[in-house]
Each structure stands twice: as C-alpha cells, then as structure tokens.
Amino acid sequence: MTVDTSTQLLPALEIVFGVVVLTFGADALVRGAAGLARRLGMSQLAVGLTVVAFGTSTPELFVSLGAALSGNGSVALGNAVGSNIFNVLLILGASAAISPLLVRRQLVRLDVPVMVATALLVLVLSLDGALDVAEGILLLSLLVVYLTVLLRLGKHTEPDAPSGAGAAKAGRGHPSAIPAQIGWVLLGLTLLIVGAHFLVTGAEAVARSLGISDLIIGLTVVAAGTSLPELATSVVAAIKGQRDIAVGNVVGSCIFNMLAVLGAAAVAAGRGGLEVPLGVITFDMPVMLAVSFACLPIFFTGWTITRWEGWVFLAYYVIYVVYLFLSHTHHAAESAVRTMMLFFALPLTAITLSILVAQEFRSRRGAPQGG
User: Fold this and answer.
1) pLDDT digit string (tens) for 115-125?
2) Which domains are assigned to the chain?
3) Which of left, alpha, beta for 275 (phi over 0: left; psi -120 to 50: alpha)?
4) 46 vs 34: CA distance, rounded Å
5) CA-CA distance, 135 to 73, in Å (whole number)?
6) Please, what is the angle between helix 177-209 and helix 2-39, to 10°?
7) Backbone φ, ψ for residue 275 (5° rounding)
C-alpha cells in the first residue's frame, strides 16, 4: 500500500515542480529578453521573434533530431507540425484571452506571411511522402535568409521605449548591463527546458496509471509538452504587458519549427529522408496551414487579437484534440466531429473573418486622410 502511494505521489510532485520551474523560467526569460531589447536598441518584437522564439523551441529541436537519428521520422514530423497547431490555437488563444494583444504591422506584412509560406512549402515538399536531405538543406538555408532580414529590420526599427522613471533609467544604461540580461535569458531557457521535462515525465506517469495508451500520451502530453516553454513564456509576457514578446514568440516558434526543426531532422535522417505519413499530409498539415493563414485576417482587423478571437482559437484546439482522440480510437463519433469541423466550424469562421476584413477595409477607406 505504501509503495502504491509513493508511486502515485512522485509523478504528482514532478508535475507541481515542473509548473513552478516553468513559471520562474518564463519570468526570467521575459525579463532578460525585454532588457536586451532596450540595451541593444532592438524592438521587443525582433527579440521575441528570434531569441525568445528560437530558445523556447529547443525542446522541439532536440526531440525531432533524436527521433530522426533513431529512424522514427513520423515522430519528428508530427512533433513539429503538432507544435505549430498548439502554438497558434492554444498559446496565442490563451495569451489573447488573458489580455488583448496589439499586433505590429511588421507581423502582418512579413512574419505571418513567412509563417504561412513555410507551412505551405513543407506541405508541398512532403507530397512525395518524405523530406529528403536536399529539402532539409533548403529549409535551413531559408532560415538563414529570414534571420538576416529580421535582424536588419530589428536594428532599423525604433526600440520600444519605457516611460517615466524607467525611461530615464534605461537611458543611463551601459554595456555592462548586457551580460546580466543575457544571463537572465540563459537562466530562463534552462529553467524552461528542465520544467518542461519534469512536467511531461510526471504527466506521462499519471496518464499510464490511469490506463491511457502510449499512443494517446504521445499525441497529447508529449506533443504539447515540447511547447510548454512557449506557452509559459507567452502567457507570462501577456500578463506582464510585454505583448510583442507574447505574439513574436508564437509566430517565430512556428517559423523555427518548419525551417530549423524539420530542416535539421531531414538532414539528420540521412539518405532515406524524413518519412511523412499520409495522415499527416491529408489532415494535420492542412490544419496547420489553415490556422497559420487564419492569423492574417485576425491580425489585420484593427491590428489587435481580441479576447473573443483568443477564445475561438482555444475552442478550435479543443475540437482538434477531441478529433485526434476519436480518430485514433476509431470512435463512432469521429465522422460527426469531422463533419462539424468541415461543414460548420471552418465555413463559419471563414465567413466571419471575411466580414471583419470587409468592415476594416470600409472603415479605412472612409477615414479622413491625415497629413
């Protein structure tokens, strides 16, 4: 009896410990990234799209590389694709539900189109059932091009200036403060990775003790677990008012997953390439492309992600996860949920977004032209 209690207690303690460490890690990362943005004269958006986004995506990179090297290409691919769906629907949705997110024009003009284009490119490259080494090198090369453009824009964009006493203090900042900000970033990234590991390990143990199959655990706990750093960071950033970091983290992570994670995994897979299962091509990748594309009109209308749009994203993620459970357990309700998604939820969303975009164009055309 004592052994049973201890085996149940340990996973629960791992979950609690993971949540606590994730919270401290996200706070440290946001603090360091915001400080770097001021010290280096870069916008918070540029730092969110690079340092924060790529740093929080390291679990996806490690998991996918390990899976590719061990010959399990479907896990490597599913991890990256599933993480992108999780990033947009759950993380962006949760962040907007906490606090409406202001969207910079750069995101609509550059970064979200790049996110959509990379998702489409990966889908096209995968149509033959694999991502080979040459395609992996192409993806990594595109990442270098994107980073070069992004860093140049970040240097030419006016940095986010703090107000009041904070502005005076920032103005008196000196280069010696930069190592301290880098230290906060590195500490935050380390804590995020450690916290995610303990939380996923504990959740897996609890799920197995409840009789949940390894397949369902892999589709939910492990896939979402690699995105926990992004979730913790964006939510904390939204709470602290660092909204550019919250949004940039999600968009940048999605681009990193497509170009860096899949590119490196395809190269690591070797001559056989990274296997792309048919189900991923016909369902998961189109869902990923659809949610990426949905960001454009949502970001464009009023340059804000409102609370109700955040709740819509969260609802869609719940529907997506429910469908995954039903389809992989061959439940009788699978066809009903699929029909609801294809013939009700998606068309209704498309109509709503079209109306919002039309209203935005009409309001801008009717607005007086300022000098």
Assistant:
1) 999 999 999 99
2) 2-162+182-363 (1.20.1420.30)
3) beta
4) 10
5) 15
6) 150
7) -65, 135
